[in-house]
Design a protein that fits this description.
CATH class of the largest domain: Alpha Beta
GO molecular function, one term: catalytic activity
CATH architecture of the largest domain: 3-Layer(aba) Sandwich
Structural class: alpha/beta
Pfam family, one: GATase_3
Strand order of the largest sheet: 15-13-16-18-25-24
Family: Belongs to the CobB/CobQ family. CobQ subfamily.
Protein name: Cobyric acid synthase
Pathway: Cofactor biosynthesis; adenosylcobalamin biosynthesis
Number of domains: 2
Helix content: 25-40%
Shape: globular
CATH superfamily of the largest domain: P-loop containing nucleotide triphosphate hydrolases
């Protein structure tokens, strides 16, 4: 089990890299994260929903993602309330204290999924959540040491040296662990080091003597690693000399599945900007309204930050507007949440840019989808996934954005400036980006192959681990613990 001294220590990336490295060596390996809190999720082969990091780790193993790989997914829809996904399906809405009381039930699902995976694979690479040293969360823990003790698995703790304080993080974490938890901790990995290792080595020697634990590796800072982010929106870009398309996305408080836009961010000729609260809204060719876990509250955020006026100005000057999932719902006339699925029960007016209305229902749509994009006379095959509670209906006839038999086909306005659909992953197809860019400004900018990029980055990550970490020694240590 890989745990971390902090959030963002590199657990997800390390597990993905180890998954690929072990798979290349012929191990039957699978990822597992007992409990994940994230708004970036993926639809599994068995029709459920898991954290996007575990879907990427499954790809690293050469597997289709499965709900057993992340049995508890917590999707916050407010500062104190979350939707709880259990083994891929919505179970209930709980606040923090209610979830704390629910943990024993959640642990049953966690152990059920883990044991099912353990019967199929010889290696299970488990990812913890946050830090095991959060003393206020120790009681009933299912995400870190509580789970490790329940299944008697060894633990390696990773710490991020880049922001500083790595020795304090490691020693402090070990100090706050119980005696049995320290005993199952085999050692540490220091992540994101840059500089002269000779200057770091005395500190590593001191750390091993102080803790009695081995530092298995010091991993270098890996520049330009392009893998799906679990939580934080990644806005880093390397633009080329010629910008063919300018795209703006509002950074919504409850933005979900923002990895939709990675193929745009990684394109050298597409300038993608996430606009945060209080920032000026720049001129653009295309405004994208992203998915949201709390559509009505994020719509209010847009109103408070001047987006409706900016969108109207953008459209007057010939700009295009595209909404994905929650952004598609925002484009309509009304959003009705009679059961309080995402927030307090009630209805809100939409932006009124497409003649459609949305009603949030208790049943959640989770589907992998194949369709054709209809923005011009030559339809383009696209595939992706849908994750939404809303049922959207047109209030007057419009042309569909997609040819998707039996599914919501989205819509495009009569003047062809405003469009929307439920399909996540739309930009993953290079030809889809080409058609969308032709619709926006006539440029026909062929997209990047995001799947090929993911594979290249997983290979790069595994190569780094092979160079920096003695994987044979690590596996021997793990096997000796099991015996």
């Amino acid at each position: 089990m890989i745990q971390g001294t902090t959030s963002n220590a590199g657990k997800s990336t390390l597990v993905a890299g180890l998954c690929r490295a072990l798979a290349r060596r012929g191990y039957r390996v699978a990822p597992f994260k007992p409990q994940n809190m994230a708004l970036n999720s993926a639809v599994t082969a068995d029709g459920g929903e898991i954290g996007r990091a575990q879907a990427l780790q499954a790809q690293a193993c050469g597997l289709q993602p499965h709900t057993d790989m992340n049995p508890i997914l917590i999707k916050p829809n407010s500062d104190c309330g979350s939707q709880i996904i259990v083994q891929g399906k919505v179970a209930r809405e709980l606040n923090a204290s209610e979830y704390h009381a629910y943990k024993p039930i959640a642990m049953e699902a966690v152990l059920d999924s883990y044991h099912r995976l353990a019967q199929q694979y010889e290696v299970i690479l488990i990812e913890g959540a946050g830090s095991p040293a959060e003393i206020n969360l120790r009681e009933g823990d299912i995400a870190n040491m509580g789970f490790a003790e329940a299944v008697n698995c060894p633990v390696i703790i990773v710490a991020d040296i880049d922001p500083g304080g790595v020795f304090a993080h490691i020693v402090g974490t070990q100090t706050l662990l119980s005696e049995t938890e320290r005993a199952r901790t085999l050692g540490y990995i220091i992540n994101r080091f840059r500089g002269d290792y000779g200057l770091l080595k005395p500190g590593v020697d001191w750390l091993e003597e102080r803790t009695g634990k081995r530092v298995f590796a010091t991993l270098p800072y890996l520049q330009g690693l392009h893998l799906d982010a679990e939580d934080a929106v990644n806005g880093a870009q390397e633009l080329g000399n010629d910008t063919l398309l300018r795209v703006v996305v509002p950074r919504l408080p409850r933005i979900s599945n923002h990895t939709d836009f990675d193929p745009l961010r990684l394109h050298p000729a597409i300038d993608l900007q996430f606009v945060h609260q209080g920032q000026p809204i720049p001129a653009a060719d295309l405004i994208l309204l992203p998915g949201s876990k709390s559509v009505r509250s994020d719509l209010e955020f847009l109103r408070q930050n001047g987006w409706p006026e900016a969108i109207q100005r953008h459209l007057r000057y010939g700009g295009k507007l595209l909404g994905i999932c929650g952004g598609y719902q925002m484009l309509g006339e009304t959003i009705d949440d009679p059961y309080g699925i995402e927030s307090a029960a009630g209805a809100s007016p939409g932006l009124g840019l497409l003649p459609l209305s949305t009603r949030l229902e208790r049943k959640k749509e989770l589907s992998r989808v194949e369709a054709r994009l209809l923005l011009d006379e030559q339809p383009v095959a696209v595939k992706g996934y849908e994750i939404h509670s809303g049922v959207t209906r047109l209030t007057q006839s419009l042309a569909p954005l997609l040819d998707a038999p039996g599914r919501d086909s989205g819509a495009i306005s009569i003047d062809r400036q405003v469009a929307g659909c439920y399909l996540h992953g739309l930009f993953d197809q290079p030809e889809a980006i080409k058609q969308i860019s032709r619709w926006v400004n006539g440029e026909g900018c062929l997209g990047v192959d995001i799947e090929r990029i993911r594979e290249q980055q997983l290979e790069r990550l595994a190569d780094l681990l092979e160079q920096s970490l003695d994987i044979d020694a690590l596996m021997a240590k793990l096997n000796s613990f099991a015996q």
